[in-house]
């Protein structure tokens, strides 16, 4: 139907059209005969395209021309891609069937299983199974004989041959174990469950890989099925049906089986549960074990399957429901003891849970009506024009949250009275907050989006055709679905920008039907790949994502079947039209208009495509380079390329980069593996050498045409990429040689292969297979190529080697392998990685003049994926270090050498990446931390291994000789020492120097590793400091004064010694003063084991006083300008420390322990003085204000007011006042009594003639002694004086005069004049008046 239009040929495509016609994609062996090689069909050659028919236009047009070109993976094709031939055994069976003249109406069964990547097809009485992802040459086909499955009456085989309509489910018994990459290696044990749709015959093979040893089991339908059916309809029908045909025919009146699913039982060996639903409303459960098959009908929850009022007679002639059974994909693992499955009925979706143990009970979890009166919950029925609604099939996404249902609606237009069918996709999702494992609530599902109409007005099909349609979701483009029809078409539906685009895969009738569809599974649990379809006679084809997006059309016709298709014509018509057709693919007339405007199509689909200007520039560059290869001339090339704007693109889109990439990624034109791996791999070596020569010619072309200068100045990244292509090509050549060497060693017995074939075994070979497999799946145009061929051809994607090592190392080296094999295989991988780096470094050294300025450019071998892959191998080798005792001496050293070389290239990769980040002014801190961590882990492990080597070697010696020990250690650690120096691994360098006890080597290394932060010297000083070798540190520092000064800035407890030694007493005083007041979390590093314990020393109060006294002595020794103020400040800090010591003596033991030796700030000390309520401490609180700065006094005025309130509370002023009245105190007696009060002493201390503060700021400027406006106590100045504070005291109304007198006398006490009398104070204005 919706076959895509043919792609317009570009400039390069037209130029190379002749070459493409001469190429052969995959030559066939002479012994391989095409399927339809008979006199009825002429002109069918024995070689050529892998498709099993002659060069018929309608099929060959679907093999894109770019598929046969050197750049097939980049071709802008909208055609499906032929990716896999049937195994030869299938072809032979098909030929045999055609010769036996099998009836034309005989159906063919086949399918594809995504989980196991196995494809199957039934031909004759044999079931053929193969892995469709493995290349044809290395593919193995399993053949199961259905005739061997006999029933009790010996007639089952006959039934199988007469009714070839099977459903097949694969059961992977070891799905939880990682035995190989998905699809690249077949499972070691897989079973299958088969069910015939018509006869309901059930067959179980416990292990298809040992089918000759483990026989199949069968379930005879004539017993259990008949009995159950007859119990529902009366015994009178039993005798009548048994009088019918002997086998199978008595089930013709029963509904056919619509769906079959199976799941392994975790607690049992080679046992599974299979579920089947039939169109007569029944669901069956089959317990399949190696001893037999036990069928049971599931009764629970089936009452809702049918509409109310349906009697038993209607069940026999049911309308095809339930339609579909699928397993729920939500977080399922092979060890789960329960599984959920979904059931599609004629009006709802039902969800059940199945226990995979004990009684294998089935219980309903929920149901959701999708066809009802509420359109918000699904599809609204009984609308105008609707006649009938058929839910046809459903599927669920990989996350288990979105369910898609294919729906057909029979409608009648009330205006024209014409009937039509509307095909739609209904997408339902779990409501937000619903737990899929344990859903609760009445409504579980909701619409994800409005109903997506696939074909709005399709022709009316019969019900048999509707029920033959199947739906699958999950392929690319994301969100697309594929619809399979019973007459052999596959239509991909993709909803894009509010419209549905359809792409239909439809082959000619002699190519057979589309049997099934699947998707290329992901290799690393990411998104699945493109759609892949299995045909009846034409092998396996893929539908690229690009083909769906660019080739998708809006539905131009009213059908999802082959009726009306351009392929629905006879072979004679095709032959008659062949000479006129040319190279244009057949397609329907209504889709011809889609080819009219190629650029408009790209705009509508939203896919960015290369502009004609880019294609023209690339074509011009290709032509100029081709002329250079022929003539060696480059006349005017630079100007022509400039005029074509070839220098405007940067990076991968640059035309020079694309040409370079096409050179190194050229696919072999005549690659074949039918003659064995030796011939194929030798072809790979020759092809790589040819590519290298051609790439060097390209560099010469760039130099002679002066394009090289233009690229280096304007497009450095593009030129860098071109040179990296040469590096990768050199590395690929070296890898091929390494593989050849390993193969020879394995053949001669020198290696340790973990496989049967030396040429195709070993860790490197497995790595090549995994990388090649990933490239094949990402580019469906390469699916018919061998993995090794793809690997050695896709040179520019060499980073994929490291991506594979990062994500799939467990597939290459599994835990089940013996330890020696693991050692050998990881060393293979390590050697390959190191070899790739060395080849790149050597190439760069040889062609260094060709490279652009490197500032800010990150080499390919310093990208994240590369160092992560290297670290994956290195970390695995670190794990194996603990098991090296299983190896002999030489093997241990070889393993160490491999790890040492791998560590070197890994650290070099990090170093280049960090440098590039710094040059681009990006923040490299995260990368640096990762680099340091991995560097230390690797080098520490390597040095420990070196020391073990030295100990083992000295144990063989009779005498212990220190000189021999040092010589051996120096010899074995010389390479490691060089790596550590290069990457500033100072811990390793220090350990080596200490173990050698070589001070001369230490000093030499300190001179060599001098940096802006002291380099290795500072690290040495730190180690000496932590080991309390302070004298050695200071002596060594004399040789490195600048580095010592840098180090001592971080260690003031040593800095003052150095300053005193240099007679810098003033600086020493400042250092000591700052040291004494430093906080505990940033003071001085402890002298013993700072890094080991991760703690810091807490300076005691005595030590701080000691440092303050030393600071005072140093200041007095310096006698510089202002030293007196320094001494006063030091004395004040000494007083504060002494006060803290006194306060601690008055605190409870528990609080004293919590404070310990911690230095408390002045605020905390003042608050403690106020809280303790001790007269002396209340007075000392004012001293703290005197001993601090003026800013502290200003910023804590409220705290100062609290101190005055506390001072007033320390004496009983009411009692003093009463005594003064009773005893009749004189002025002298009053002053003597008041001198003992805290208020008097505080006033004298803060406001007296001898009061002294720093910075010349007095208490009067912060808190005046008297009210400035005594006549107005409510003014704004009322609370800004000591007098105002005292007025708030409880005794002020009675003893206020006495309190103020004490305050005023205290502020003047100590002056030369006599203190004022009480009479003098009474004459003044006072609140007491």
Automatic annotation (TrEMBL):
It is found in: Nucleus envelope. Residues 83-541 form the Nucleoporin Nup133/Nup155-like N-terminal domain. GO terms for cellular component: nuclear pore. The keyword Nucleus applies. Residues 1-52, 555-582 are annotated as: Disordered. InterPro entries: Nucleoporin_Nup133/Nup155_C, Nucleoporin_Nup133/Nup155_N, Nup133-like, WD40/YVTN_repeat-like_dom_sf. The keyword Nucleus applies. One of its GO terms (biological process) is protein transport. Residues 921-1158 form the Nucleoporin Nup133/Nup155-like C-terminal domain. Residues 16-35 have a biased composition (Basic and acidic residues). Keywords: mRNA transport, Nucleus, Protein transport, Translocation, Transport. Pfam families: Nucleoporin_C, Nucleoporin_N. Belongs to the nucleoporin Nup133 family. This is Nuclear pore complex protein NUP133.
């Amino acid at each position: 139907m919706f076959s895509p239009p043919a792609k317009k040929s570009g400039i390069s495509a037209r130029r190379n059209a002749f070459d493409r016609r001469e190429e052969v994609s995959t030559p066939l062996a002479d012994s391989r005969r095409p399927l339809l090689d008979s006199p009825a069909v002429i002109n069918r050659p024995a070689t050529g395209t892998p498709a099993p028919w002659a060069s018929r236009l309608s099929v060959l047009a679907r093999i894109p021309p770019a598929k046969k070109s050197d750049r097939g993976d980049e071709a802008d094709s909208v055609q499906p891609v032929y990716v896999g031939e049937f195994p030869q055994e299938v072809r032979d069976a098909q030929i045999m069937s055609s010769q036996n003249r099998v009836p034309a109406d005989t159906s063919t069964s086949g399918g594809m299983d995504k989980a196991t990547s196995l494809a199957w097809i039934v031909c004759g009485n044999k079931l053929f199974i193969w892995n469709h992802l493995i290349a044809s040459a290395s593919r193995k086909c399993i053949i199961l004989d259905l005739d061997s499955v006999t029933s009790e009456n010996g007639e089952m085989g006959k039934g199988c041959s007469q009714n070839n309509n099977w459903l097949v489910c694969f059961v992977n018994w070891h799905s939880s174990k990682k035995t190989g990459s998905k699809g690249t290696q077949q499972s070691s044990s897989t079973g299958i469950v088969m069910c015939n749709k018509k006869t309901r015959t059930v067959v179980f093979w416990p292990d298809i890989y040992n089918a000759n040893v483990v026989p199949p089991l069968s379930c005879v339908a004539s017993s259990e099925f008949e009995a159950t059916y007859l119990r529902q309809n009366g015994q009178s029908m039993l005798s009548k049906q048994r009088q019918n045909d002997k086998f199978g025919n008595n089930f013709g009146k029963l509904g056919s089986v619509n769906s079959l699913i199976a799941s392994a039982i975790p607690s049992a060996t080679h046992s599974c549960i299979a579920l089947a639903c039939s169109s007569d409303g029944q669901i069956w459960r089959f317990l399949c074990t190696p001893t037999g098959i036990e069928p049971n009908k599931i009764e629970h929850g089936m009452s809702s399957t049918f509409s109310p009022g349906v009697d038993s007679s209607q069940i026999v002639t049911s309308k095809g429901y339930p339609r579909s059974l699928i397993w729920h994909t939500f977080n399922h693992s092979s060890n789960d003891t329960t599984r959920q499955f979904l059931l599609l009925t004629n009006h709802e979706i039902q969800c059940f849970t199945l226990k995979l143990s004990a009684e294998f009970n089935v219980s309903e979890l929920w149901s959701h009506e999708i066809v009802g009166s509420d359109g918000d919950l699904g599809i609204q029925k009984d609308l105008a024009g609707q006649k009938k609604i058929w839910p046809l099939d459903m599927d669920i996404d990989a996350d288990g949250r979105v369910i898609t249902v294919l729906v057909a609606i029979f409608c009648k237009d009330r205006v024209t009275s014409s009937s039509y069918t509307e095909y739609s996709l209904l997408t339902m999702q779990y409501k937000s907050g619903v737990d899929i494992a344990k859903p609760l609530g009445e409504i579980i599902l909701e619409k994800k989006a409005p109903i997506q109409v696939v074909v709005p007005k399709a022709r009316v099909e019969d019900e048999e055709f509707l029920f033959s349609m199947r739906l699958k979701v999950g392929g690319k483009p994301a969100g697309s679905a594929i619809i399979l029809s019973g007459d052999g078409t596959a239509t991909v539906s993709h909803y894009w920008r509010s419209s549905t685009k359809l792409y239909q895969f439809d082959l000619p009738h002699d190519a057979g039907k589309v049997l099934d569809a699947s998707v290329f599974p992901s290799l690393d649990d990411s998104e699945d790949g493109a759609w892949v379809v299995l045909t009846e006679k034409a092998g396996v084809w893929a539908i690229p994502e690009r083909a769906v997006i660019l080739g998708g059309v809006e539905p131009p016709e009213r059908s999802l079947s082959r009726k009306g298709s351009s392929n629905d014509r006879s072979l004679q018509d095709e032959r008659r039209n062949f000479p006129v057709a040319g190279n244009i693919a057949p397609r329907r007339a209504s889709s011809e208009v889609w080819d009219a405007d190629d650029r408009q199509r790209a705009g509508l689909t939203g896919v960015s495509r290369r502009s004609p200007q880019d294609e023209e520039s690339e074509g011009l560059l290709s032509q100029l380079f081709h002329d250079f290869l022929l003539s060696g001339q480059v006349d005017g090339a630079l100007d022509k390329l400039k005029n074509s704007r070839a220098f405007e693109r940067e990076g991968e889109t640059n035309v020079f980069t694309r040409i370079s990439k096409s050179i190194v990624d050229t696919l072999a034109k005549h690659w074949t593996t039918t003659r064995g791996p030796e011939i194929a791999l030798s072809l790979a070596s020759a092809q790589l050498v040819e590519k290298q020569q051609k790439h060097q010619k390209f560099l010469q072309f760039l130099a002679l045409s002066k394009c090289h200068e233009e690229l280096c100045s304007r497009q450095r990244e593009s030129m860098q990429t071109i040179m990296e292509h040469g590096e990768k090509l050199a590395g690929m050549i070296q890898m091929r040689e390494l593989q050849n060497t390993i193969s020879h060693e394995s053949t001669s017995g020198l290696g340790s292969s973990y496989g049967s074939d030396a040429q195709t075994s070993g860790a490197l070979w497995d790595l090549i297979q995994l990388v090649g497999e990933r490239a094949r799946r990402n580019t469906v145009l390469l699916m018919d190529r061998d993995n090794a061929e793809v690997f050695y051809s896709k040179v520019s994607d060499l980073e994929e080697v490291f991506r594979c090592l990062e994500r799939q190392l467990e597939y290459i080296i599994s835990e089940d392998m013996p330890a020696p094999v693991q050692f050998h295989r990881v060393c293979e991988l390590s050697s390959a990685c190191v070899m790739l780096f060395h080849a790149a470094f050597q190439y760069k050294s040889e062609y260094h003049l060709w490279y652009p300025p490197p500032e800010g450019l990150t080499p390919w071998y310093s990208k994240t994926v590369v160092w992560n892959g290297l670290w994956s191998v290195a970390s695995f080798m670190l794990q194996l270090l603990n098991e090296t005792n299983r190896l002999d001496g030489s093997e241990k050293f070889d393993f160490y050498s491999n790890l040492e070389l791998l560590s070197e290239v890994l650290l070099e990769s990090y170093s280049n990446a960090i440098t590039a980040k710094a040059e681009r002014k990006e923040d490299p801190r995260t990368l640096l931390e990762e680099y340091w961590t991995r560097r230390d882990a690797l080098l520490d492990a390597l040095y420990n291994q070196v020391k073990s080597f030295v100990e083992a070697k000295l144990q063989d010696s009779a005498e212990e000789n220190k000189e021999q020990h040092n010589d051996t250690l120096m010899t074995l650690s010389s390479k490691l020492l060089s790596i550590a120096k290069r990457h500033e691994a100072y811990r390793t360098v220090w350990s080596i120097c200490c173990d050698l006890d070589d001070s001369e080597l230490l000093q030499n290394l300190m001179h060599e590793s001098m940096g802006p932060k002291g380099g290795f010297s500072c690290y040495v000083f730190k180690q000496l400091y932590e080991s309390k070798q302070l004298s050695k540190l200071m002596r060594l520092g004399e040789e490195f004064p600048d580095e010592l000064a840098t180090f001592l800035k971080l260690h003031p407890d040593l800095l003052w010694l150095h300053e005193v030694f240099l007679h810098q007493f003033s600086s020493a005083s400042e250092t000591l003063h700052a040291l004494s007041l430093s906080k505990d979390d940033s003071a001085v590093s402890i002298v013993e084991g700072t890094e080991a314990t991760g703690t810091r020393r807490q300076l005691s109060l005595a030590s701080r006083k000691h440092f303050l006294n030393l600071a005072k002595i140093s200041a007095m020794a310096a006698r510089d300008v202002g030293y007196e103020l320094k001494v006063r400040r030091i004395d004040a800090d000494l007083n504060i420390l002494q006060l803290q010591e006194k306060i601690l003596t008055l605190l409870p033991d528990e609080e004293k322990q919590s404070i310990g030796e911690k230095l408390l700030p002045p605020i905390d000390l003042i608050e403690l003085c106020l809280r303790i309520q001790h007269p002396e401490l209340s007075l000392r609180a004012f001293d703290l204000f005197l001993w601090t700065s003026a800013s502290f006094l200003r910023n804590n005025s409220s705290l100062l007011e609290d101190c005055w309130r506390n001072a007033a509370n320390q004496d009983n002023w009411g009692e003093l006042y009463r005594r003064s009245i009773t005893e009749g105190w004189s002025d002298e007696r009053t002053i003597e009594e008041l001198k003992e009060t805290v208020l008097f002493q505080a006033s004298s201390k803060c406001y007296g003639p001898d009061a002294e503060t720093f910075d010349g700021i007095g208490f009067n400027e912060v808190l005046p002694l008297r009210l400035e406006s005594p006549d107005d106590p409510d003014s704004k100045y009322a609370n800004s004086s000591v007098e105002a504070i005292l007025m708030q005291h409880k005794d002020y109304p009675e003893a206020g005069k006495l309190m103020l007198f004490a305050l005023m006398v205290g502020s003047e006490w100590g002056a030369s004049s006599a203190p004022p009398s009480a009479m003098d104070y009474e004459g003044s204005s006072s609140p007491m008046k």
